[in-house]
Amino acid sequence: MAQKTYNTMAVLSLILLSFILGTSEFIIVGILPDIANDINCSLTMAGNLISVFAFAYAIGTPFITAAVSAYNRYYVLLILAICFILGNFLCALASNYYILVLARIITAIISGTILSISMTFASEIATVQYQPKVISWIFAGFSIASVFGVPIGTIICQIFSWQMTFILLSVISICILWHYLPNVGSGQKTNLCNQFILLKSMRINYGMLIVICGAAGSYVFYTYLTPILQQYIQIPISMTSLVLSLFGISTIISNLLSGRIASLGGMKKMPIVYFLQALCLLALIFTSYHLVLGLINILLMGVIMYLQNSPAQLHFLKTATREKPEAITLASALNPVSFNTGIALGSACGGIIINFAPMPFVGLGGAIFAIIAMIINLKLLKNMTKFNKRG
Fold it and tell me: Residue 94, SS3?
């Protein structure tokens, strides 16, 4: 009898869950004017909901994740899904801007915790050799949401209302969790402060800095992708959506390839990836003035953008398993938290650069972040070698 490799329906449920979480995060982009009109606020204020979400996600996720780590993960995930529903209902019923901000903060923190805990199910629903693939598919759900979730949500908004978009997302999320995830046991009993001792590990700190710099390198340019396409590469406005969709597809490929990299060496292979990322970002300065070369380079950066996801996630989980097993759930939150921190850092640096130089020079800023990520990655590998010899 062939060995069971993974629980197909459980894997699909986690992919769909990440798709729903991603759509909930990104949907604001597609329905921004509708929200601004309904709650009588400016587009700028409505746009701040995106920043509020990312900030709350990065700050709140590790604390909530650590706090619930000692309890049965299946029931915790169901309870969090119910809270996610309540948060989305609050979004749907929000009568003013401040209630909507509160609702987005709630859904951000819960979304981050749900994603972190869902990652820990990889070891329960797949054999060791398939776990990197499962993790890469879960991350891919977010990229799929950015390509298909926002348009689908926008269509629902146009047919019904933006409130109905949030309500439908909520109902779907609880149904898939209830039916398909396995009921696994509780984590080890430990206090909150004891879990955060994990952050004293140099292997963990190096990993977080790598993810932050890698994400910052991508989002220095990604934040300004649309104006670069239109103003420099000279993509017609009517074709911008198509190019952005192609870029979204390239990021889906990136997430799936990250699972392959995790299987073939993980963080040992990432210095090469960061070096290639730096080259593509530097090339942005020159290729942004050429249609074909510019598009090829943009799509290559999309393929590179999320290659670090699965290797970094497995690095955090394996390091915690070896050094602090009771903090495994907290460890699962470190990759998305670090990535969101990198998003904020990269976007801010991109804004500073375009105040002093032409927009394509965001590529130079991104390349610097990528090189820093590569250097820290090499330091991590050296540190891991010494640690393994001692262990």
Answer: coil
Spell out the SS3 assignment of 250-318: HHHHHHHHHHHHHHCCHHHCHHHHHHHHHHHHHHHHHHCCCHHHHHHHHHHHHHHHCCCHHHHHHHHHH
User: Which tokens go with 188?
Assistant: 């080890």
Rounded distance between C-alpha atoms, residue 380 and residue 319, angstroms = 12
Residue type, 352: I
Report the candidate in 11, 10, 108 with the shortest Cα–Cα distance to residue 61.
108
Q: For residue 88, which amino acid is it? A: N
Residue with tokens 């799936």: 256
C-alpha atoms less than 13 angstroms from C-alpha of 257 in its C-beta half-sphere? 17
Q: pLDDT category, 57, cuts 50, 70, 90?
A: confident
Count of C-beta atoms within a 10 Å radius of residue 185: 9
Q: Give dist(CA 379, CA 43) in Å, integer.
A: 44
Cα 265 to the center of its chain, rounded Å? 22
Contact assessment for residue 21 and residue 170, using Cβ atoms and an 8 Å cutoff: no
Which amino acid makes up residue 127? T
358: its two tokens: 């032409």
What's the mean pLDDT in 69-73? 78
**Contact between 188 and 325 (Cβ < 8 Å):** yes
CA distance 324 to 150: 39
165-174, 269-278, 348-357, 380-389: which range is least confident on average? 165-174
CA atoms of 213 and 192, how far apart (whole Å)? 27
CA distance 384 to 322: 12
Q: Are 87 and 107 in contact (CB under 8 A)?
A: yes
Q: Which residues of 295-317 are buried (b: 16+ CB within 10 A; e: fewer)?
A: bebbbbbbbbbbbbbbbbbbbbb
- Residue 163 or 254, more confident: 254
How far apart CA 341 and CA 62 sit, in angstroms, is 12
Q: What is the DSSP letter of 68?
A: T
Here the tokens at position 238 are 């009517």
pLDDT digit string (tens) for 125-182? 777 777 777 888 887 777 777 777 766 776 777 677 766 766 776 677 677 767 766 6
Q: Are 228 and 221 in contact (CB under 8 A)?
A: yes
Q: Give this prediction's pTM.
A: 0.79
The answer to whether 65 and 116 are in contact (CB under 8 A) is: yes
Tokens found for residue 71: 């309890």
